[in-house]
Design brief:
The protein is an all-beta fold. The protein has strands at residues 2-3, 7-8, 10-13, 22-27, 29-32, 47-49, 55-60, 63-65.
Amino acid sequence: VEVPGIGTSVIVDHGEWGGGGWVSVLGNLKDVKVRLGARVAPRYPIGVAAGDTIHVQLTQHGTWIDPSLFM
C-alpha cells in the first residue's frame, strides 16, 4: 500500500499478541514480499528497504508507541 510521506508500505496486524490491538506500518520499501492477508511468522522477510532505512510506526489500540522500545 502507498502511505503518504513514507511510500510503499506494509501494514501488519499483530492479532492477539500482547493483549491485541497492535499494528505496525513499515514504509520506504522498494519491494514487498507478502500478499494482502498473508500470515507471517516472526522474522519472516516482508519487504526490502528502498534505501538505508525503513520507516516504522507502531500503535496499540490507536495509541502511538515508540518502536525503538522493541528494536
